[in-house]
Amino acid sequence: MSSLVFIILISISVSIALGYALYNFYSVKKLDEGSQRMQEIALAIRQGANTFIRNEYRSLSLIMLIVASILTVFISWQMAISFILGAVMSGTAAWVGLKIATYCNVRVSNVARTSKSLAETLKVAYRGGSVMGLSVGAFALLGILLVYLCFGLFDGQIAAVMEGRERLNFLGFPIPFTVTLSGYALGCSLIAMFNRVGGGIYTKAADMGADLVGKTEAKIAEDDPRNPATIADNVGDNVGDVAGLGADLLESYVGAILASAILACELYRSHASPISAELLRRMIIYPVVFAALGLLACVLGTMSLLVKPKLSTKAHRELNLSTWISASLSLIFGLGLTAWLFKSRPDLDLKSAQFRLGFISPWLAACFGVMAGIAIGLLAEYYTSYSYKPTLSVAESTLEGTALTITSGMSVGMRSTMAPVIVLASAIYGSYSVAGIYGVAIAAMGMLSFVTATVSVDTYGPIADNAGGISEMSSLDAEVRIITDTLDAVGNTTAAIGKGFAIGSAALAALSMMVSYLYAATPAAEVISLNLVQPISLVGAMIGAALPFLFSGFLIDAVSKTARTMVNEVRRQFKEISGVLEGQTQPDYKRCIEISSDGALREMRKPALISVLFPVCTGFIFGPKFVGGVLIGATLSAIMLALYTGNAGGAWDNAKKYIEIGGLAGSERGSEAHNAAIIGDTVGDPLKDTVGPSLDILIKIMSVSSLIAVSIFSHYNLLDYLLSKW
Amino acid sequence: MSSLVFIILISISVSIALGYALYNFYSVKKLDEGSQRMQEIALAIRQGANTFIRNEYRSLSLIMLIVASILTVFISWQMAISFILGAVMSGTAAWVGLKIATYCNVRVSNVARTSKSLAETLKVAYRGGSVMGLSVGAFALLGILLVYLCFGLFDGQIAAVMEGRERLNFLGFPIPFTVTLSGYALGCSLIAMFNRVGGGIYTKAADMGADLVGKTEAKIAEDDPRNPATIADNVGDNVGDVAGLGADLLESYVGAILASAILACELYRSHASPISAELLRRMIIYPVVFAALGLLACVLGTMSLLVKPKLSTKAHRELNLSTWISASLSLIFGLGLTAWLFKSRPDLDLKSAQFRLGFISPWLAACFGVMAGIAIGLLAEYYTSYSYKPTLSVAESTLEGTALTITSGMSVGMRSTMAPVIVLASAIYGSYSVAGIYGVAIAAMGMLSFVTATVSVDTYGPIADNAGGISEMSSLDAEVRIITDTLDAVGNTTAAIGKGFAIGSAALAALSMMVSYLYAATPAAEVISLNLVQPISLVGAMIGAALPFLFSGFLIDAVSKTARTMVNEVRRQFKEISGVLEGQTQPDYKRCIEISSDGALREMRKPALISVLFPVCTGFIFGPKFVGGVLIGATLSAIMLALYTGNAGGAWDNAKKYIEIGGLAGSERGSEAHNAAIIGDTVGDPLKDTVGPSLDILIKIMSVSSLIAVSIFSHYNLLDYLLSKW
To answer: Average pLDDT for residues A646-665, to the nearest whole number?
Structure first.
């Protein structure tokens, strides 16, 4: 069949999603902002967020230009273009999300105030969230569409195109055509890393600063306007939980789609088990069209909630329903696509791509991915919700003091790694069994095919949270705060599942990229292997396994350092500016915003640079076998740390919430036990919101940048040179 | 040359060491115990320790008998015998250590009281410690000597013996002769695991219980006799830090020696690069004789301190001097041995064993091991001593409250993993380059060749610590306490280096065992590989990497659970028994001892069973490739976690000490900052003293038990069966 059908399909899907996002954007923006005080606060938050993102993007654009120049010189200008395109798409999506979130928050607060209806408020908040969700899906696919169009990946003669475009770089090494795809993924990943790390530092420094002095020392409530760090805290929610999270999931989405396409190309190039040119074409197109259909499914799923004339008061059920509609439609559309593309034809030798169960194989792999994502999410829910034993045990340990609160949270986090890893391992083994290594990549893509729905819910949460903050600071009725708090809490379960998808897909995508890397590093005649009995690979794996620890240590440090400055500033204001604690003088919010912003901009570079440069630099010194080891070591260790930090942080957070809703006898607000719980929560904050999500990005950036650089360092590295002399 | 020379050499060395240990034991025992009160307290501690070890050994002997029966049925009775022998040797060494420590502590306290001389007190404490050190070295080698003698490993016709003894088990699978060696190692490892885990739970539960209520809530000093948990705490020091540590290092020592011998056998059996029968004989004998010479060197090193008529007051320098004499003599003796055994001869084709630099190759590997051990120890010192930036930063963060104290300690721990891993990786690459995979095992052996000196210093620490406790509880002069505290602190640097050896050698020995496992799992005609591109191995590696996290979570939980019971008991006694806090009534020490003891006995089983059963059971289900993945995943992850937990715990501990010596302005004893530091220390306690050391044992037990079981499950496992049907 002609590729035109697919091009049109993707274009339609992207246009509909973008149109719907635009419609929702303006529907939200035209709502009333509420009282003078509310408008002032919202403006302060919006300005803080805008200033930060502007400064961030300014410093990023320089970095991006430098990287693009290096890529042009050493690899190819085509790749540099797709790299820039990726960065622009990711940056735009995050920016749109930040815009809508900072418009939507105050409007949600106002709707709650005027309508006093949970259902009405839910609708506005979710409409705001959907703008981010739709942007993530649409911009990601728009960029991929452009890359595919520019570089001939829709071409009927794709195989010929691939080989024709394989060119030598200025050092005379052949640069595989697939780097254009890797370039796009790298652009998205780099922006995601900066947004995630920068946002994570920003939000957690503000949050910790506000809590440590405000809640623990001055004993004032969360979001109390007397707290100088409170505006920064609310800006942080937007910067970290909206822009950071959006860029993160966009990166995962793009990573999963392109990992599948790249693997298809590598399977074609590998002479060990070559696939036919027509099969290659279909395997390249499949993940993109699957994702486009998923985007359409999400538009329908989102509409199903928004057009409903009367929502029930069970917000939880409404959100889940919308997500499950999106997910089911994605899989149903995907099944049709799979049948259409891979139905039996003489020129498609499905066995050559290891599709062991015929045309349905890749679809089954996608289903395994979705199932694994849900299972990992439910397990996260089990370990971190106060409805279950693990978090309850953390809550109970608060009665024995802070130290045991910390150790029991650590223990929950550590124990929580095994079950999701077993799920992930089963998904890998299952999808590999039905559709080979391509199946593993498709499993990641399947997990993320309805990413739009996931991001919408994930964004809705911080919007509701911010609305709560604005209500508190504007001294609105307690009733309003109850509505926003309920909405905030409701998003949590769905968000937990979204987290399962994020980490599961990161692991699968990173592993697929790693296999692509091995293909690229191995001469075409040989069978790929990653043999850890070879000392150089073993040594690489050891150092690789230490890398996520080093990276996490740096991140925690970055947050702590900025938080310490914040703590001192808040203490200073309480002491030096008279009347602040009594609520008579307005504190200096601006200074706190500056501290968070400066800290984030300063500290985000080191971790981001490590993730890109480490595999590349060591590749030039120790060669491709070493980097292969680094990749597997880092992936293994990052998965464990991400699960550990995420779940330990979640358990502490909810143990505190459990105590605050009065779940634990003998630990009312302000008691020793409550204090211990707050400290646990504060310790967990940087772990679950900065470290955990950044680790997902780390392993993907590392594998993408190795994949790009390997075409050079497999020919030219110090160790091979020395060994040849010895 | 005849093997008789070596048999005599080992026997002499073992006899001298045992004789010297006996002499030191009675020299200590005949000293005066001091006042009535001191004798009472010492008796209570001694009885507590004896009761615990008796109960532990009773429940262990049953487990050992069950394991031995299973081994007899499924593998061979020879192996069961060496297994029992290993357990008996390890158990005896730990028991001797516990005896001397509980005799020595009060005598150290009394010498300090009567002589008021630091040098005199040091001598007694070190003499006590040396009994443990010498027992560890001597009993370990005695057992190996017996195993070698019984099973013909000294035989001139060793190769023929090996093949003649290879027999079929009752299922008809050939059982390699090397399992007799693995059996001995498994016996030592299992005892070590129980002693380490049991002792770790005992000591940390008592310690946390005593600190949490005593120091934090009741604000009384450490070792205050009014604290009901104080005797249990002092018993715990003996059970955990003496018996647990001794069994742990004995296991490492045996593991490293036997890993080298087993690898030599596997190299011989592997048809890929077969070594000659004579070379095999020498490679089997080499590590044992090297260790025996090391033991002699340590006798001389220990004597050099003890016979000196007048010690300087710089205790630190005296201890280091003695250790360095032992280490240097070990290496010098070893060099002679290496030249003697591997000097050029026509029937020794050194190249076949990958000795790339001729006869000196294995000695160089041993030197790399020693250098790596020292470097790792110094790095641990850097990250955990308050003379350097990392720990100082933790100390400073106490000023910003508990939460930042915890996060900064975590960050130090995480960042501290990279440097030692690089050192370890270099040692692996270096020793592999000079002497092949045998070199990696020899590097571990080299590190531990002077283990006796290390254990002596490591045991001397808790003896001095206990002496301090007894002084405090008997209300001796403050001067006495200053002497014991100084001695306790002095041991720390040397102990840090000992820790570096423990973790470094564990990693190297586990990797060598893993390679032996791969040899055993691979048909003789094929080249061994551990290819993580194979999904079954990859999946194994993922699950393996999660295992140390699960294991650590269980351990932390076990400690926390027991500590919680202890906290409640101490609180109860303060409340219910009138006059305890005023010092008028004696608290119920016995009840606290029972809580620790019961908790330790109850909780130590699960982690120990996991470590033995997990690789064996999954082997029977998923086959040898899966277990290969599990071993590498677990080893990588355990190394990182061991470094992380050890260094984070050490940093918190010393940050607290720094504050207590008044190093930090604005944080005197009893301040908020000091409180935060105590909480940090309490959180770190189970991490550094229970989790970290147990992880070292975990990876060795896992690889030994896989190595033993693989001869069966490589022929018979569920997955292969199912795949053959599919």
So the answer is: 89
Answer whether B539 sits within 8 Å of A425, measured CB to CB: yes
Report CB contact under 8 Å: A640, B408: no
User: pLDDT: is B584 or A369 the higher one?
Assistant: A369
Please tell me the distance from the alpha carbon of residue A604 to that of residue A194, in angstroms, as a whole number.
6
Our CA angle for A586, A589, A594, nearest 5°, is 160
Cβ atoms A575, A228 nearer than 8 A: no
Q: Do B415 and A549 touch (CB under 8 A)?
A: yes
- Name which of A628, A620, A642 is nearest A694 in CA terms: A642
B545 and A679 within 8 Å at the Cβ level: the answer is no
**Residue A174 host element (H or E):** strand A174-175
- In sequence order, what are the beta bridge partners of A168? A174
Nearest CA in chain B to A672: B217
Comparison of pLDDT for A351 and B65, the residue scoring more: B65
Q: Could you tell me if B236 and B592 are in contact, meaning their C-beta atoms sit under 8 angstroms apart?
A: no
- In angstroms, rounded to a whole number, what is the distance separating the alpha carbons of residues A359 and A66? 44
Express each pLDDT in B216-254 by its tens digit: 777 787 778 888 888 888 898 888 888 988 998 999 999
Residue in chain A nearest B209 by alpha carbon:
A400
Residue A219: count of CB within 10 angstroms of its CB: 10
Q: Looking at the complex, report in whole angstroms how far the Cα of residue A207 sits from the nearest Cα belonging to chain B.
A: 12
Reported as a single tens digit per residue, the pLDDT across B702-722 is 999 999 998 888 888 898 888
For B615-662, the pLDDT digits (tens) are 999 999 999 999 999 999 999 999 999 999 999 999 999 899 899 888
Query: Which among A432, A535, A560 has the least Cβ separation from residue B408?
Result: A560
Please judge whether B541 and A515 are an interchain contact, meaning their C-beta atoms are less than 8 angstroms apart: no
> Which pLDDT tens digit goes with each residue over B509-548?
899 999 989 988 887 777 888 889 899 999 999 999 999 9
Helix residue ranges, H only, B154-178: 158-165
Residue pair A250/A135 in contact (Cβ under 8 Å)? The answer is no
Q: How far is CA A159 from the centre of its chain?
A: 33
Q: What confidence tier does A474 reach under pLDDT thresholds 50, 70, 90?
A: confident
d(CA A270, CA A282): 17
All residues of chain A having their beta carbon less than 8 Å from the beta carbon of residue B638 are none
- Residue B623 exposed, middle or buried by CB count within 10 Å (0-12, 13-18, 19+): buried
Residue among B216, B539, B553 minimizing CB distance to A429? B539
